[in-house]
Write a structure and sequence with these properties.
The chain is α+β, with helices and mostly antiparallel strands and 186 residues long. Helices cover 75% and strands 12% of the residues. The chain contains 5 helices and 4 strands. α1 runs antiparallel to α3, α1 crosses α5 and α3 packs antiparallel against α4. The longest helix is centred in the N-terminal third of the chain and has 66 residues. It is elongated, with a radius of gyration of 31 Å. The chain starts with a helix and ends with a helix.
């Protein structure tokens, strides 16, 4: 009986040591997994931000191009009837179309090279587009008086104004986000 009792104690002693080693191993794995998660999390978040920002710039650039063909403002007469309208191309000579194409090129270069400089260029193009919208188009959308056809009218913003305003903000913000996300690259 002694022999079997000693065997029992021997296994019990090994069992405690094995459980302790297993617990220490699990703790080390947990610490390692947590450290890997902390290392990986910002990288995943950054890549998601860059992808979202890229989509934002692409959509914004296309909207800048489209806005050139939409009415930026319409002129209503005294009776409320529309007596005139002006497209983006009429108002600033396809400037936002050129900016939209350049922003598309800049974001493609920024993503393919993983460099921040083309992304900064896209953001700067968005700021320039915003300047055109606010300096050139905004005053025209709120003007009133005699029209070229000698009628009294009030200008009101049309869909093109809102599209170009939102598009310029998208390109500027998205370009800045890409530049921020790729600033450590290269």
């Amino acid at each position: 009986m002694k022999a079997s009792g000693q065997d029992s104690k021997g296994l019990a002693g090994h069992g405690r040591a094995a459980r302790r080693n297993l617990a220490l191993g699990a703790q080390r794995v947990s610490v390692g997994a947590r450290a890997f998660g902390e290392w990986l999390s910002p990288r995943l978040a950054s890549s998601k931000v860059i992808e979202l920002a890229t989509i934002t710039v692409l959509i914004g650039a296309v909207l800048l191009i489209v806005s050139e063909f939409l009415d930026v403002f319409r002129i209503e007469g005294v009776n409320g009837a529309t007596i005139g309208a002006s497209s983006g191309a009429d108002n600033h000579g396809y400037a936002l179309l050129v900016i939209g194409v350049a922003a598309l090129a800049a974001v493609f270069i920024a993503r393919s090279t993983r460099q921040a400089l083309p992304a900064f260029a896209a953001a700067a193009l968005g700021v320039i587009a915003l300047g055109i919208v606010l300096i050139v188009d905004l005053p025209d959308t709120a003007s009133s008086g005699l029209t070229a056809s000698h009628r009294i009218g009030d200008a009101h913003p049309a869909i093109g104004f809102w599209v170009e305003l939102i598009a310029a903000l998208m390109v500027a913000g998205g370009g800045a986000a890409i530049a921020w996300g790729t600033r450590d690259s290269g």
